[in-house]
Design a protein that fits this description.
Blueprint lengths: L2 E9 L5 E8 L4 E5 L6 H16 L7 H11 L6 H22 L3 H4 L8 E9 L2 H13 L5 E5 L30 E2 L5 E3 L2 H19 L5 E4 L6 H11 L6 E3 L9 H8 L4 E3 L6 H9 L5 E2 L9 H12 L4 E2 L9 H13 L6 E2 L5 H6 E3 L2 E3 L2 E3 L8 E3 L1 H5 L6 E2 L2 E3 L9
Parallel strand pairs: 4-5, 4-13, 5-8, 7-19, 8-9, 9-10, 10-11, 11-12
Antiparallel strand pairs: 1-2, 2-3, 4-16, 6-18, 14-17, 15-16
Bound molecules: 2-keto-3-deoxygluconate (KDG) and magnesium ion.
The site of 2-keto-3-deoxygluconate has 9 residues, from loops.
């Protein structure tokens, strides 16, 4: 079998997605997600100019060799653009292998280790009442684990909180459907870590009082604290028994987690912006985290993320794969196949794509009783409707950024 055709398809049904579509001389089609939120076209260029010409004519069965060729052969390793491009190739090749074998990808990865994947959704609210409504709505949708994000008194707009200000009710710009906002320039938000640290423990206390001790609750710090602030937050949240505290400090400095770890037993998750096992190496070996947040789409594909998670398993560290709406349905499917197969699955983030996205990408996964399952179609189980995709051209969109009250740019 040979790779005959390699197309890079950009579509923007509810938000921008970049998909690599490989076709073989035997007619098998493989899809890979290469979406890098807010920097999508950089990956398009990387794929079109530097990867597609190297793929044509190759044997799609040689997944590991093609991966090593693209990673080692470029000389310039790692980085979000490179690794998203390689991830798309890896996913598409697993998709083709599954279709050629007549098996879903999870079977090729060792078979199912469980019946389904516990998934968490994003509840948020500017006020505690809004937050409670959002938690109730998630419970009604069947979620059995919920991320809690809340407004902070004195701050106008905070990333991760739906229904704020002028955007409330507009499905095109609400955070829960579109983490990046369409427009020529990114939107500025404000931030104050001390106010956040004062406010958050009371919110978790209120949520536990209202919804009880059993439901797993998660929280995302979006890389905004110093190590000592993160340690303080972790400790102050201990009475509320979090499933995890995510991205408590900026991701570049993995050593920061040593200090956090010394001070709190709140479980830690990190890695949605990591690209390779090298970003995780020390924090896994030193057992500084409890969950690996890497996305298949940003860690170079199913192959390297499986290796990273197998390594993490030696230290009882589990998966918590990134699954916001900027991971396309193809990237989500890849995460579900991998999560079903590995022994050390922890939880899967599941934000739910919009209706237009689901028309462009027809999917075989199921969602029932708070659990995801990738389905049993051969390959990844996702089909891209190219005509439907063509109706939604790329639209510039950026994540917001935040500044302190004195104008200083703050960490994400
Ligand atoms: O592209 C960035 C978003 O996907 C990210 O900010 C969402 O933090 C996020 C999460 O945990 O889903
Ligand atoms: Mg996050």
């Amino acid at each position: 079998m040979r790779i005959d055709k390699a197309e890079v398809i950009v579509t923007s049904p509810d938000r921008n997605f970049v998909t690599l579509r490989l076709t073989t001389d035997e007619g098998h089609v493989g899809l890979g997600d290469a979406t890098l939120n807010g920097r999508e076209l950089a990956v398009v260029a990387y794929l079109k100019e530097h990867v597609v010409p190297l793929l044509l004519g190759r044997d799609p069965a040689a997944i590991e060799d093609i991966w090593q060729f693209l990673y080692r052969g470029a000389y310039w390793r790692r980085g979000p653009v490179t690794m998203a491009a390689i991830a798309a190739v890896d996913m598409a090749l697993w998709d083709i292998k599954g279709k050629a074998a007549g098996m879903p990808v999870y079977q090729l990865l060792g078979g199912a280790s469980r019946k389904g994947l516990l998934a968490y959704g994003h509840a948020s609210g500017k006020t505690t009442d809004e937050l409670f409504d959002s938690v109730r709505a998630h419970l009604e949708q069947g979620y059995r684990a919920i991320r809690i994000q809340t407004g902070v008194p004195g701050l106008k707009a905070i990333y991760g909180i739906a229904s704020q200000g002028a955007d409330a009710g507009d499905a095109d710009v609400r955070y829960d459907h579109e983490p990046a906002r369409r427009g020529a320039l990114p939107v500025e938000e404000d931030w104050d870590t001390r106010a956040y640290l004062r406010h958050l423990p009371g919110v978790f206390e209120a949520v536990r009082n209202e919804f009880g001790p059993e439901i797993p609750l998660l929280h995302d710090g979006h890389h905004r604290m110093t190590p000592i602030q993160a340690a303080k937050l972790g400790r102050s949240l201990e009475p509320y028994d979090l499933f995890w505290l995510e991205d408590c400090t900026p991701a570049e400095n993995q050593e920061a987690l040593r200090l956090v770890r010394q001070h709190t037993t709140t479980p830690l998750a990190i890695g949605e912006i990591f690209n390779t096992v090298w970003d995780f190496k020390d924090i896994i070996r030193e057992q500084l985290i409890d969950y690996v947040r890497g996305a298949v789409t940003h860690m170079g594909g199913i192959s390297p993320l499986k290796k990273t998670l197998d390594y993490a398993a030696m230290y009882q560290i589990k998966s918590g794969m990134h699954g916001p709406t900027d991971i396309s349905p193809v990237g989500m499917a890849a995460a579900m196949h991998l999560g079903l197969a590995i022994h050390n699955f922890g939880i899967q983030e599941y934000m739910q794509h919009g209706a237009r996205t689901n028309e462009v990408f027809q999917q075989s996964f199921t969602w029932a009783d708070g659990m995801l399952h990738p389905g049993d179609q051969p390959g990844l189980g996702v089909t891209l409707d190219v005509d439907e995709a063509g109706k939604y051209p790329y639209a510039q969109a950026y994540l917001p950024y935040n500044r302190l009250h004195d104008g200083t740019m703050h960490d994400w």
